[in-house]
């Protein structure tokens, strides 16, 4: 019996997919999952569905206007929550920090502090999945359907669950009534089922889980944490989900992590790193184990009066005698202009559990080794279980301006012809000091774009393979990228000289590995060229081909087939380091990758604070990027006219090019410069390209590389 997907049906009937979620619950319209677990509809029911829509007295629009309550990021009880301190934190940052474009909140908890910086790119992290999934809901820029969220929450609030489940079996009449446990277990299982079927995406899943966690926290039979529950209390059935309302104008490059902060800081960069670690011996995984259990939904065994699961992997060193050592390691590895540490003055004021684990002397010693330190304080009422008598509690902000912080200059993982990595020491100092948006119009291997200090960068190239490859690196988890690369290498039996050396392959360092890899590489190349499915793994496969190809370069023929032969090298330690640093860089900073012809770039979108770098194919030189008339005299003239338009809009630019190469002069460029000698300045550069595969007979031939600027 033929079936149709929800997307296809919605298009055919000219209705929204959200309206189909209402129809799903009508008994007249049975549905079933297909082999991939996604919802499909029977073709035979389409006419009946049409008739129902025509007769339906409740319009689609009014169905979607279900009355609902909303919730915001601060509507959650949490130890050490800094929401009420946000004005204090923002004031310190605004008055003492400059050029803050990327903010990392690496012990983010509820995400309250990160929420104060959503006008910037934000990086959040927390070791607990229950916090991480809420960060996805509040900060991820993935699209979601608000109507769909409203529909599911309305459905969950109305549901009357009869069946027992994991929650009733383990938590009935403890933190929640048995009836509320039934609802919690049903809702959480249904969210997971909808996600597996493909009816909700990852962001929508996160929002629904967040709604459930916030609803649980609101009614839990506790004093704010789950170390214990109050006994002898008559529990009411009152679970009600509210609709989370994330901001809609979030930075598209926001990124959320769920890992150990000490490991994370080795792989990220930011302008400001905010640190709010646990202060005392109270482990957050003990206080919020139940929310963590529901968020992960792995249904582990629980034990003890408080019904806790195994939490060993979630224990923090910052709650133990190891805190000072962990803090010193953290600060040492941070790559940032500023570090802002929240740490109160409770080192000897509460009971033993409340006392801070890092004393002020150690805090100052460690931070002063990193930079210049200022301290700001504000009186603040701390959380207490009732056993502590804490007077004159202060929340302190330690602001460290790091010594001489500069972004490390890193190379591209691609050996792109004409790449400017070796020229960076000459050209970067010539760029403007303050750049809002940096545009790398012909980004190629991105050597320039990823090393410029700017608020945000647009990295453009007409080669769509580059766009998809870079977005794959930006969007996939780094560990998964490396695992996928290793799987491909292993599948095709390609060499791994970093592990086994050259002798295993009967090769040597001088001659390289091409004899061993040739046939294996050709099979990999053929399989790639024959693939039609261009998902993420497709572009990881492309990267492996580039690694094992001649000079690690990229080239496609007129039939769009990768056609370089095998090279001498493999995925050695140097290549791995380049890729690792590149991935970290593009994840940490505010980069957008685009693929368009330069003539289609919208100059009107730029302002006088922006800067355009232009490194086009060189008309008078040879390279894989301008074979088969890929760059003609017409392109050169069009580009020069485009540059004049940039200048007329009072936007700064820099053009890399060559005036003369191997005895050939670029007369078009020379004439343009002569015509505009009052407007543009030419700066001579000193560099000859050694990564070209084209043989030069006259090694002494002059190449005049220049940078042309209008400022």
Beginning-to-end CA distance, first to last residue: 69 Å
Average pLDDT level: 89
Beta-strand share of residues: 5-15%
Class inferred from helices and paired strands: alpha/beta
| SS field, number of helical segments | 24
Question: Unreliable runs, pLDDT <50, ≥5 residues?
Answer: 57-64, 383-390, 689-698
Shape: globular
Largest sheet: 8 strands, mixed
Strand and helix map with partners:
Elements: E1 3-5, H1 6-13, H2 17-23, E2 31-33, E3 39-42, H3 46-55, H4 60-64, E4 70-71, H5 86-96, E5 102-105, E6 121-125, H6 129-139, H7 146-158, H8 166-171, H9 178-197, H10 202-219, E7 243-244, E8 255-257, H11 261-264, E9 270-275, H12 284-287, H13 289-296, H14 323-333, E10 336-344, H15 360-368, E11 371-379, E12 394-402, H16 424-427, E13 437-440, E14 456-460, H17 464-475, H18 478-492, H19 497-500, H20 514-530, H21 536-548, H22 573-588, E15 591-594, E16 611-614, H23 633-648, E17 652-661, E18 664-665, H24 667-675, E19 681-684, E20 703-709
Parallel strand pairs: 4-7, 5-6, 5-9, 6-8, 9-10, 13-14, 13-16, 14-15, 16-17
Antiparallel strand pairs: 1-3, 2-3, 10-12, 11-12, 17-18, 17-20, 19-20
Summed up, what is this model?
With 711 residues, the chain is of the alpha/beta class. 35% of the residues lie in helices and 14% in strands.
Give structural notes:
By secondary structure, this protein is an alpha/beta fold. Helices cover 35% and strands 14% of the residues. The strands form four sheets. Strands 13, 14, 15, 16, 17, 18, 19 and 20 form an eight-stranded mixed sheet that branches. A seven-stranded mixed sheet has the order 8-6-5-9-10-12-11, with helices on both faces. The longest helix is centred in the N-terminal third of the chain and has 20 residues, at 178-197. Residues 57-64, 383-390 and 689-698 have low confidence and may be disordered.
